Amino acid sequence: MKELDDGERMTFEQIIQGMAASSLRCIAFAHEQIPEEEQEIREGRQKLKEDSLTLIGLVGIKDPCRPGVRKSCGGLPIRWSECQNDYR
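C-alpha cells predicted for Putative calcium-transporting ATPase 13, plasma membrane-type:
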C-alpha cells in the first residue's frame, strides 16, 4: 500500500467526474484496519478519518428513472431530460 500523490488523486477525480458526466453514480469502497482492542471503544462513536482509509476501488452505477415516470409525464407540456442531483 502507498499514499496517493497529487497526480493519482487528480486521476481518480477525473474518473469520478467522467462517471458523473455519463450519468453514473460513483461509489468508492475503502477500509481501515482497526486493532481488535480499539474496536469496542470506536464502535458507532467515531467517523473514520479519510486520511486513514485504504482505497479498494470505484464503482459506477447506472441510476435509471423509476418505471412509469415518463408515461406519467407524457401528457404534460414538459421537456424531458435526466440529471444527476448530486453532481458537484
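The radius of gyration is 19 Å.
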